[in-house]
Amino acid sequence: MTETTPRPEVKDAALGRALPEGYPDDEGGPSGGKRAFDPIVIAAILVSVAFVLIAIVYPVGSVIREALSPDAIPVFERYLTTVQNEIFVNTMVLGLAVASLGTFIAVVFAYVQVRVPKPRWVQMLIHVMALLPIVSPPFALAVSAISLFGRSGIITRDILGLRVDIYSWPDVAIPIVDIQVPPFGLTMVMALTFFPIAYIMLMGMMRALDPSLGEAAANLGASKWRVFRKVELPLLAPGIASAFLLLFVEALADLGNPLVLGGDYWVLASRMYIAIIGQYDLTAGSVLAVMLLVPALIVYFAHRYYANKASVVSVSGKPSGRHSEVKSRWVQWLLLGSVLAIVSLVIALYGTIVLGSFTKLLGVNHEFTLDHWRSILFGYGTKAVTDTVTLSAIATPIAGVLGVVVAFLVVRRRFLGRGALDFGVMLGIAIPGTIFGIGYLLAFNTPTEIAGFTIIPKLTGGAAMLGGAIAIAMVYVVRSAPGGLRTGVASLSQIDPTIEEASTSLGANQATTFRRITLPLIRPAFLAGLIYSFARSMTAISAVIFLTTPKVRVMTAQILNETENARYGNAFAYSVLLILIVLAAIGIMSLVVGTRTGAEQATESGGTR
Questions:
Q1: What are phi and psi of 365, to 5 degrees?
Q2: Most buried in the list 140, 344, 367, 493, measured by CB within 10 Å?
Q3: What pTM, to 2 d.p., does this model score?
Q4: Strands (E), 276-401
Q5: What DSSP string describes 30-85?
Q6: Cα atoms in the 13 Å half-sphere on the side-chain side of 83
Q7: Among candidates 72, 480, 95, which has minimal Cα distance to 290?
Q8: Residues 467-493: pLDDT tens digits?
């Protein structure tokens, strides 16, 4: 009898573990099977690489090239002086303030959801209100905050009789270093806008903690507070650090909120907007973009480090037992009361948006009217609605498919540059959107030619192909594909590759195997990628605001325009309609794609026969 030589264990550096039997080997094919690199796989790699180079690397490189040009030297000197450098300092201080407050709110929300006993309806209310900012325009809360807490706000002036300057309070400096404190209104609104991202992450981590660790400490005599401080908090620390850095990146990149609520507090994103839209100074915009790009990438890499560390520390196996709940009544009421207070604030802010869309002028004339809705549905605002929905509907399936295809290549295939492809796609979310907006203006404002042949036509500007619609759709895909990529990688990493190997062994090609085997198995991840893509496309503002033309309009830019012109009723109506469209699209995609995996459907079908 011939003795079979066992296949040597193959380690994958990206996944950090040994690859299972049947995984593609170094030669490019599964062990004992067909070669992995058939023409379809090669085509997928080439298309993915071309997309990263054209849609991400080329525009960002154009910004860096413009910032390093001789014309940029005096601009750098101007913006690196003591006075102008305050813009950079303001950006960092605002990022730290928003990240700190947002992370703290997220920790409290997650802890209350996991550890504090409460009625089921209260748990659902907290969860829904925490997630609502994700599907709304990024500065919708800023507009309603002005109506409630501004100088002529309903609460501050009409109810409390106060005249609060929401744009600049408090006007103080941090001692010793003499740094201006960011406006409280801006900080609070941005924290409420972005904390749901950290909340989802931290709630999952808290539920994944092994309760036996806390039980062991309690059996040794440790109090609840000591168990939390000495056992659970160190395990959650990498996740908290990751959430903090993620919110810091979001705060650095945000454009809408600083424009609406910033007042005289200038940050890099808002100053870039003025340089491009107000002065059409692409060189100054590029210099500011590079000043924002460097800290954003540094923080993003730190976030990836802590995110990987958190996944190793907190999810070390299937938790055993149940998490102990908070027993102290006063602690329960303190935590739950704090969360419900924030939930009430969120309800008030969104209630203001809905109410304002049906009143003549909120805070002045509360007469019921449908004029704002007529304007956006049957008047000049109709084009913004149809263009946004159309472009988002086009970009969503492209971003979803691109995300799962690149995830499949990263997890299932081993080829030179695999890690670079993964990193290249993730740059779409690591780099602030304002940089992409400037990059597309620089890269695609004229046709790109090689040896006299037009390789890429003009894509931006009023005379561009389809009025700039292609460029906006490309930005939507660039900013959305990373969500599908990460969910796809997480899902594929949990599926045994021998299932796909069995399909190829029976003669199916890579396309058939991916369509009939892989995609049904990762259907929930694919659906999550589609939902993320559509919601992010509909609510995008930072990049696309530079690319809109009279031929192509988007709702978020229109909301900002209505806000700047004090037409708050129209802005509210746009915001409500946008939220309704996103929620309806989520429901439709859930019905069409389905949330169950192919394995779950097969099990259910076999059990009912």
A1: -130, 105
A2: 140
A3: 0.83
A4: 359-361, 365-368
A5: BTTS--S--HHHHHHHHHHHHHIIIIIIHHHHHHHHHHTSGGGHHHHHHHTSTTTH
A6: 1
A7: 72
A8: 788 999 999 999 999 888 888 887 787
